[in-house]
Amino acid sequence: MAPEFRFPAAIDDSEKVYRALLEEAGPGGIGLYGTSSGATLCVQLIARLQERNCALPSALGFFSGTADLGKAGDTELFFRSEKDASRRSELYAPYLGDHDPADPAVSPILAPLGSFPPTLCIAGTRDFMLSQTAIFHRALLRAGVHAELVVFEAMLHAHWIYQDIPESDEAFDHMASFFKRFVGRSATHDA
What we know:
Oligomer: single chain
Distance between the termini: 36 Å
CATH superfamily: Alpha/Beta hydrolase fold, catalytic domain
Largest sheet: 4 strands, parallel
Number of strands: 4
Number of domains: 1
CATH architecture: 3-Layer(aba) Sandwich
Number of helices: 6
CATH topology: Rossmann fold
Strand content: 5-15%
Radius of gyration: 16 Å
Order of helices and strands: HEHEHHEHEH
Helix content: 25-40%
CATH class: Alpha Beta
Strand order of the largest sheet: 1-2-3-4
């Protein structure tokens, strides 16, 4: 965790785990997903793997995250308290250190996205990361990537962690269905 371990330490660790999984399952047997900062780490890892010409996973779950650490989204202004320290521009400073947020390795939305795997994006209408999730979804579509966006009415950031609400079950159903469709299939990423 930052600031003890700054960017790219988490990506270095993730890459080691991914490469070990790749030897066991191959890219068609791997689905990568994360929520919030985990979603950000996932897209940073894919950008790195892509840059290094490594086989990519067969599917990506991008749940309430950001692929652009240089810009705030509109929903962050509405759904985070004025007193929330994470609203400030220094939000990612402990993680990034001296790295430029405009570097595609840091903000993968700035990297070539055309070879990204099929991606499921999920957020809620009261999620402070809804804008960032929707922006990344549109960027994937512009790049020709199969991308789906599911937005839950009146749900807050990462609402599926509240497992006693029906929307949590529905979110997990969407996730499971998406990964069943793409993980274990050929690398062509047909929808």
